[in-house]
Amino acid sequence: MKKHQTSAPLPLTDTLSPGLPLDQIGRTLASFYDNLVTEGVPEHLAALVRRVRQTEDDASARHEPPVVTLEAEPPRLALVVEDDPEIRALAETLLEETELNVVGCDSAEAALSVLQARGGDVALVFADVRLAGQMDGLQLARAVATLWPRARLVITSGHGLPRPDLPAEAVFIAKPWRPFDVLVEAERAAAESAPPVI
């Protein structure tokens, strides 16, 4: 009867592919580690996987890329242009309930100064027809429609104008306006995306 011969176990290096670094084997095992654990992994392989993972975690902690913080977008504005201080204050208080920052002006000229400085941030221009200064709200509306077409235009008047001669994009709300109507227009303005920076 022929005896079955048992051979001595080969050294570890004989069973590995020539030139394959041990840490690469460990990384490969680490990628399958979770599945292998459920099937039962010899402790010496599990220890190797843990050591490779710890080394990789330490290396990534030392070589973390810098955290890039995006600059916050400037807040979008609602411009209230009204020469009556009480009505202007009422509109400003109302619009402060929206996500827009509010800037009040008593004249078209003051509003144009704000628009020249921050026109890309202005989402809403809410203006009366009659204003202090040389320009009226209709002239302001035409300037805004031409130069800052992304701003939502809402023109108001209490002087019996059914719909004054306004740019087609403008919305007209007769005085006394309802807060709800103003808020609806403000929400529409806030929902529109800011123009791209060119």
TrEMBL record:
Organism: Methylobacterium longum
Keyword Phosphoprotein included in the entry's annotation: yes
Pfam families for this protein: Response_reg (PF00072)
Record bears the keyword Amino-acid biosynthesis: no
UniProt keyword annotations, A-Z: Phosphoprotein
PANTHER family hit by this protein: STRESS RESPONSE REGULATOR PROTEIN 1 (PTHR44591), TWO-COMPONENT RESPONSE REGULATOR (PTHR44591:SF21)
Xref: InterPro entries: Bact_response_regulator, CheY-like_superfamily, Sig_transdc_resp-reg_receiver
Record-listed 4-aspartylphosphate modification sites: D128
Domain Response regulatory stretches: 77-190
Protein name (Swiss-Prot/TrEMBL): Response regulator
SMART domains: REC
